[in-house]
Protein 1
Amino acid sequence: MPNIHDVARRAGVAPITVSRVINNSGYFSEEIRQRVETAIKELGYVPNTVARSLRSKKTQTLALVLTDITNPFFTNIARGVEDIASDAGFMVIYCNTDESEVEEEKYVQMLLQKQVDGMLLVPARSEPSIISKIQARGKPVVVIDRRIEGLESDVVRCDSEGGAYQLTQLLLGLGHRHISVLSGPRYVSTAADRVAGYQRAMAEASLSDGECIYFGSYHQKSGYEMAKQALAVTPRPTAFFAANNFIAIGALSALQEAGLHVPEDFSVVAFDDLPPSLTTFPFLTAIAQPAYEMGKRAAELLLARLQGKANQPYQVVVLPTELFIRQSTGRRLDRK
Amino acid sequence: MPNIHDVARRAGVAPITVSRVINNSGYFSEEIRQRVETAIKELGYVPNTVARSLRSKKTQTLALVLTDITNPFFTNIARGVEDIASDAGFMVIYCNTDESEVEEEKYVQMLLQKQVDGMLLVPARSEPSIISKIQARGKPVVVIDRRIEGLESDVVRCDSEGGAYQLTQLLLGLGHRHISVLSGPRYVSTAADRVAGYQRAMAEASLSDGECIYFGSYHQKSGYEMAKQALAVTPRPTAFFAANNFIAIGALSALQEAGLHVPEDFSVVAFDDLPPSLTTFPFLTAIAQPAYEMGKRAAELLLARLQGKANQPYQVVVLPTELFIRQSTGRRLDRK
DNA sequence: TTGTAAGCGTTATCAC
DNA sequence: GTGATAACGCTTACAA
C-alpha cells in the first residue's frame, strides 16, 4: 500500500505538502493541489489514520459502553450517539458489559489503550471509581442513564424516581392497594430510584410496601421469576410495576401462565416503552424515555468537550419522560 | 502520560524488555517481570495501542457496517459479532448506512483509513464494487444477510427465497388467493429474493401475482403506505406478506385504520420475527432468522481469516430459518 | 535472557 | 508557499 512518501515522490513535492493538501491546512497553490490529487488517485493512496493519530494524539473515535445493545432503549441511545458522532467525523466503538463491573473495567482499560478521544458510559454500578479513572487520564466521559453519587461529570438521564412515582400514582388512582415492584439490580441507580418513586407514592397514600419489592435483573427471565414470586404472596397483589420493558414482558408471561388476564384480573405498568416500530398492538401502560435524544445529547456534550469546551462546568441533563396509558392498566378497580 | 521508556528507565531495563513483559512474548526472567510490573503500577502506565498498531500493522479492531442498528434483527447480529470479537480481544466499530450507498462508501473509506483488521458488512446494494474495493486492499470482509451476484467472498445469510416460499404456501393453504407482497428496496437482494419466493409459490398454484407486488423500504412507514395502496386495489387482497418486521407493523396499523381485523378479516405473515423479549403477546406468523447466530458465525469466519486462514476458499453459510405460526394467519378461509 | 537500532506513516516545528 | 527534520510510542530484526 502506498504511503505519503510515494504520493509526494509522484507529485514531485515533499510529504508535508501532501499532508497539507489532504488536510486542507496551511498554504499551497492550486497547481500543487492538482498534482497531489492526481498522484493520490493514480496510486490509490489511502491516508493512514493510525500514524496520524500517533502524531496528533487524536483518534477521532468515541466509545459507547453500555449494558446490552439488545435492549431497544440502549439501541436507540446508540443510534443517537452514532448519528451525531458520524456527522462530526467520529467513529464509535461499542461495548456490552451485561451489568458486569469486571467487563466494564476490562473494556475501559482497552479503550484507554486505544486512545479513544472520549467515552459515553452507562455505568454498571453506582460507584464513581471507573469514571474517575477515565477522567484522571484526561479523557472526557459522559455518564448516560444512571446517577452516580459523589461524582462530578457530564450526565444525561431521565428522572427515574419521578416517572416511577407517576406510574405508581396511576395504579393507586385506579384503586390498586397491593402493588408489587419488579425492579432491576439493587445497586443500579435506575433500579433503586424507581423503587424510591414507588415508595414515595405508597407512603403518600399511607400504604405499606412491606413485602412487595423485588430486585432482580433487567431481563425477561428475571421479570418472569420475580412475578412468580410476587404472585405467591398473600394477599396477592393486583398490579405490577415493572422497572423496565424486559421485566414487563417476563411478568406478562408469568401472569398468563397463572391464568390471570391483563387488564381484567391484573394491571401492569412499565418503565420504558417499547418502540412503536416494534409493537404489533400497543398494550403496555408505560413511561417512555427519549432514548434517541439521550444518545444525541450525550454525544453532543462529549463533542463539545473535545472541541475546546474542556473546562466548562459539568452539565447534568435530565430529560422529560412521557406517560402512555394503554390497555394493560384497564379501568378502575371495584372497591372491596 | 508515561510511556514505555519511562517504565523501562524506572525498572532499569530496555524498552523492548517492557514490551516483552506486556505482551508476554520472547524470553525474560521472573525477576524482570516483577520489576517491570512494579514500575508499570507505580507509574500508572497504559500501553498505547495506536503506536503498537502503527508498527505491527494490526489494530485489533473490526468494523460492522449495517443498515440500521435500530432493527432488532441487526441488533442481534451486532450482539453476536461483539460477543465473539470481544472474546478474541477485538473491539468493534459500528456504522449505520440506512441503505445509502453514499454513506456506505463514506464509512468504508474511513474504516480503511483507520486500518481496521476486517469488516462485516450488510451491503446497501447487490453490487460487488464496494466489497471488491475492500478486498483489493487486502482486508477480509464477510458479507452478512445479503447476496451479491458475481462476488467471491465469505457470506453468512439465510434463505430468503425459501422462507418466502414457505410463508406464501402457508397463506395459499389457508385458502388465500389474493396475497399482496409488501417488500423492501428493489435492489436489495433480500427484498428481491422474498418476492421471488412468493412468485414461485404463486406460480405453482397457477395464480397470477399481477398487481400485487410492492417495493418500498424496510420501515414501518413504508409498510403502512404500501398496505394502504394494496388495500385500494380491486379485488382487495385477503392477506399480506410483509418482507420484514417493520413493514409488518406498519401494515398492521394500515389494516387497523381500514377497520379490518386480523385474523378475522385479513391475514398477515412476516419475514423476520420479533424477539420474544420484546413481544407482549406473540401475534405475527413469521419466519425467524437466527440473527445472533448469524453475527456470531460471521465474526468467527472473519477472525479465522485473520488468524492465518487467509487463503482458504471462501465460505457461504446459509443458516436455517424457522416458521412460527401464530394468530395473525387465523383459520382456513371459507372457499367462496 | 537482554539489549541496540531502525522504522512504522504521519505531522509539528522551524527554516527557507 | 514549500520543504527538511525530528518526533509520536511502539515493535521488528538483529546482536550480544
Protein 2
Amino acid sequence: MATLKDISVELGLSVATVSRALNGFPEVGAKTRARVQAAAARLGYRPNRSAQRLATGRSGVVGMIVKLRADMSADQTFFDVVTSLTAELSARDLDLVLSVDQGDDPVAPYKRMLERDLLDGFVLNAPVPGDPRPGFLAERGVPFVMHGQAHDAPDYAFYGIDNAAVSADAIALLTTLGHRRIALINGEARFAFAAERAAGFHAAMAAQAGPVPQGFVADGPPTENTGYTLALSWLSGRAGPRPTAILCATTPVAAGVLRAARDLGLSVPGDLSVAAHDDALPNIRPAHFTPALTVTHAPMRDACAPLAQMLIDHLNGAPPARLQTVIRAGLIVRASSGPVPKGEETPWQTT
Amino acid sequence: MATLKDISVELGLSVATVSRALNGFPEVGAKTRARVQAAAARLGYRPNRSAQRLATGRSGVVGMIVKLRADMSADQTFFDVVTSLTAELSARDLDLVLSVDQGDDPVAPYKRMLERDLLDGFVLNAPVPGDPRPGFLAERGVPFVMHGQAHDAPDYAFYGIDNAAVSADAIALLTTLGHRRIALINGEARFAFAAERAAGFHAAMAAQAGPVPQGFVADGPPTENTGYTLALSWLSGRAGPRPTAILCATTPVAAGVLRAARDLGLSVPGDLSVAAHDDALPNIRPAHFTPALTVTHAPMRDACAPLAQMLIDHLNGAPPARLQTVIRAGLIVRASSGPVPKGEETPWQTT
DNA sequence: CCCCCTTCTCAAAACGTTTTAAAAAGCCTG
DNA sequence: CAGGCTTTTTAAAACGTTTTGAGAAGGGGG
C-alpha cells in the first residue's frame, strides 16, 4: 500500500503538502495539487483509515440499531433505509455499523455499542412517544440524528415528514370528493408517526366531516393481511355503517383493502375510495395496483442523504437544533379515489 | 480519557511495561502487573482503538453481508445468528459490521466493503453450490469463515452441520417405524444445505425404502405456509398415494404440515408422522407443538462461538484448511412420529 | 533594490498504541 | 565476588495520518 510518504518522496514534496493537496485544503497550489493527485492515482494511494482516525480522533463509523419484532423479523422499510443510508454515508467517508437488538430495554443496545469505543455517532429511527434514546445519548454527548419526527418539537437533529399533513391532505381530497364516512387503518400505535397521523386524521375529519367513531380507526402491522382483515369486517357492514373511503398507513395495507373490496364485489372507486401513504419501497408499485392507488408520496430513502449530511454537520460541531427538516409528502391522485357514491354522503355520527 | 502514559507516570513505569502488563505478556512481574491493573481500573483506562489499530495494522472489525430476498425481507435465522455472533465477537474484541445487499452479483457487496478499507475479514453464510465468494476473497487474501458447509470439501474455514446425516438420521427413525412412503419438504433449492439434505434423503430412501418419485420432494421458503400448502396437496391424495410421513426442512414448515393434517382430520402420529430439522430459533418451540415435534436438533447460534474463534485464529495466521468443523445434529424423538399405519407399509414405487 | 504581503511549502509534533532491541536488575553457581 | 544466566524493565522506533508554527518563494509597490 502506498503511503503519503511514498508520494512525497516520489514528487520531492513534504507529506504535509501531499496531505493537504489530497484533502482539498485551499493553500496548496493548483499545479502542485494536480501533480499530487496524479501521483496518488498512479501509485494507487488509499489513506490508512486507522492512521486518519488516530490523528483526527474520529472513528469514521456511525451506528444504527435494528429493533427486531417479537417474531425476530425486521421492517421492510428498515432495509430500504439502511441500503440508501450506507451509500450516502460511504459517499461522505463514513461507515455504518448495524447492530441487531431483540431486548426490551430501548437504550441497552446503544450503551453496549458505546462501550465498544468504536462510534462517532448514531442514526436513530422509529421514534416512539417519550423515546428515552435521545435523552440518553444527549446526556453522554453522543451525536445522533433521528429519522422520523417526534411530535413535541425536539431539540435534536431529525428528518421527518409532516405526518399530520399526510392525513390532512388525504382527508382534504376525499372530503372534496364528497366522502364523509372515512375510516383509517393506521400504522402501529406505539410509533410516534402513527400518533401524529391519527391526530391529523381526527382533526381534519372533525373540521370537514364530523367526528369518527372509535371502531373505524384501527391499526396493525403494515401488511396486506392487516388491510384485508379490517376492510373485510368494515365493508361487510357488520361493524356498523360502511365507510365510503378508507385511508391506509401503507401501500401493502391498501393492497389488502383492495382485495377485500374485490372479494365483496365492491368496485373501487365506484363503491369505495382507497388512499394510502406511500413510502415508495422499491418492490411495491402502487401506480400498478388495480385500480392505480391514490397516495401521499414520500420515499423513505429520500431521507438518507439529508440524514447523512446532518450527521456529518453535527459531528463537525453544528448545533443540532439547527439540523431539523420536516418535509411535506406529495399528493398523487390516481384511480382508486373518486366521488362518494350517491346517497352515501352522510357522516358517521348521524347514522 | 486516561492513556497508557497517564498510567506510566502515575506509577513511575514505562509505557512499554504498562502496555505489556495489560495485554498479559508473560515477561512482566506479578506485582507490577497487579499495580498496573489496579491503576488502570482506578483511572478508568480504556485503550484507544484507533491507536491500537494503527500499531497492529488490524482494524478489529469484521464484516457480514445480509442478502435480502426479492421482497426485501431477511431470514429469521440470520438475525438469530447475527445476535449471537455479535456477542461472541465482542467477547473477543472484534466488532461486526453488517451490510445489506439486494443486488444480483454475489461478490459485489464484498468488493464494496473491502474498498472501504475497514475490515479484517468476513463471516460468510448461506453458501450456494459453486459459490463465487470464497474464491473471490481467497484470491485477495481476505480471511473469512463460512457458516454452513459447501459439500465439496472446501479448502477454507467453515462450520456446518452434517446435512446428509440430518436426512439419514430422520429417515432411519421413520423407516424403523415401518414408514416407506416418506415425502420431503426441503429448504430452498438454491442453497447448498438443501442440496445436501436432498442427496442424503434420496440415498437413505433408496437404501431403506425404495426410490422416491419427483413429486414428493418439494422445496420452498421456510414458512408455515409452505408446509401447509404442500401437505394439503399431498394428503388430499390428489397428487398420488398419500405419504405416511413427511420430513420438513424447518419447524415452521412442520407447523404448517400439522395444521394441514388437522384440517383434513388426520391424526398425528396415527395417520401421519412428521419430523423436521430444528434450527432452534428462540421464538419457536417444537417441543410445545401439538403433538410435540420429532426433530433433528442443531441450534444455529451454536455455530457462533466456533465461528468467532475460527476467524480469530485465521486472522492470527492459522491455516484455514485446519479450521473446519462439521457437527452432527442430535435426534430428538417426540410425539409426532409413530409407527406406520397398518396396511400402509408399501413403498412409493410399487403403488 | 528594498520591503512588504500573499501564496505556497516544509519540518516537526502530535495522536496512543505495539514492538524491537537493549539495558538493568536479580539470582544462582562456582 | 566474578561470571553467566534469567527475569524484568526501558528508551526509542514504528504505524500513517493531520495539524501547527514557521519559513521560503513569488509578486508588486515604493
